[in-house]
Specification:
The chain has two domains: about 5-130 and about 305-335, Glycogen Phosphorylase B (Rossmann fold, 3-Layer(aba) Sandwich); about 135-305, Rossmann fold, CATH 3.40.50.2000. The chain contains eleven helices and twelve strands. The chain has helices at about 25-40, 55-70, 85-100, 110-120, 160-170, 190-200, 215-220, 235-245, 275-285, 290-300, 305-320; strands at about 5, 50, 75-80, 105-110, 125, 145-150, 180, 205, 225, 245-250, 265-270, 330-335. Helix 5 links the parallel strand 6 and strand 7 (about 180).
Length: about 350
């Protein structure tokens, strides 16, 4: 199998880099570059593997690939990965349905998205997200370290403001508790100001961290807290499983398809920081609970290893490639800014 990667947001080198960096201007130039680079690659491919998100990301990322694939008569695997699928159908329904008719196979990382699309009349297959669980050392500590870990993009949909509120409630009863917030985003300033106004000590903002740094973030123990308002299948929860951190999370979107309440984590309602706080207190104080959740999480993490996903993806590619007789590479359109690569 030969694979080529096509970034959906290509950049120009200096001195023309500003054309793909400046706000508004980049919204015109990047899609044009994307299509220009994609057109000569599509005829060489048996299959286009198109990563897709909702709303304008679908419009500028997935739709051009679908149109170009149709032009050259190439089958498309549409790998849809956005927890806002219901809103996508609500706001962009006719366009989404038109596009889905041009897809050879729909693939989702979660049964949650599969169920959403099934309600709209579309069948699909599920290939779960892959996490390099071997990079994480399972280090459950008893008692649980009084540390809360939040590691999502600092955007309103991930509800980190509710993590701050829950922390204040728990901190009043567990004075030694600390909150480590990892991530960056448009809500960074608002959250920092909220933390200051709240007046709760021991809230630490660390900024963005790379995927390779996550084993160290998880390795110092504590409780993983996730306050999402909208979500699909966050890698973060699987990483916490592999590292031995008990999980307290909202039951947003596809999260209940990963975390089973009282088995491998605790789930609470969305936008209920008092419920979040109560669940954290249970993990810190209830004898045996944290160890039971962490142990079940460790077993669950094995489902997301590469060997499991490899078999599923090979089956998907073989099934779709059969629709095209010629032997050409698979082409992947994604946000990664990768140059042309080959691999097995």
């Amino acid at each position: 199998m030969h694979v080529e990667f096509q970034p959906i947001d290509p950049r120009l080198p200096d001195p023309w880099r500003f054309l793909t960096e400046w706000k508004f201007l980049r919204s015109v130039v990047r899609p044009l570059l994307y299509c220009r680079e994609l057109i000569p690659r599509v005829p060489r491919a048996d299959v286009l593997h198109v990563f897709a998100a909702a709303h304008t990301a679908f419009l500028f990322g997935a739709l051009p690939a679908l149109l170009i694939a149709r032009w050259f008569g190439r089958p498309v695997v549409l790998n849809y990965r956005d927890g806002r699928a219901e809103a996508h159908f609500r706001w962009w329904g006719p366009l989404v349905r038109w596009a889905l008719k041009r897809v050879a196979l729909l693939v989702f990382p979660s049964t949650y998205l599969q169920e959403v699309f099934r309600r709209h009349g579309y069948e699909s297959v599920v290939v779960p997200n892959v996490v390099d669980t071997s990079a994480f050392s399972y280090r459950y500590t008893d008692p649980v370290r009084p540390r809360l870990v939040s590691a999502r993009a600092l955007e309103p949909l991930y509800g980190t403001d509710n993590t701050l509120r829950a922390f204040a409630i728990v901190k009043a009863q567990v004075p030694e508790l600390v909150l480590d917030i990892y991530g960056a985003g448009s809500a960074m300033g608002t959250l920092r100001r909220a933390a200051i106004a709240q007046g709760t000590p021991d809230i630490r903002f660390h900024g963005a961290v790379s995927r390779t740094e996550m084993p160290a973030v998880m390795g110092t123990g504590g409780v993983l807290v996730n306050s999402s308002r909208i979500d699909n299948m966050p890698h973060l929860l699987i990483e916490a499983f592999a590292a031995g951190l008990p999980i307290v999370s909202t039951a947003a979107g596809g999260i209940p398809h990963i975390v089973t309440h009282e088995r491998n984590g605790l789930l609470v309602s969305i936008d209920r920081p008092e419920e979040l706080a109560a669940a954290v207190l249970r993990v810190l104080r209830e004898p045996g609970l944290a160890e039971r959740l962490a142990s079940a999480g460790r077993r669950e993490s094995a489902r997301y290893s590469w060997p499991e996903a490899e078999r599923a993806w090979l089956e998907v590619y073989s099934r779709v490639a059969a629709k095209c007789a010629a032997t050409r590479p698979i082409l992947v359109t994604d946000r990664r800014r990768s140059s042309r690569t080959a691999g097995r």
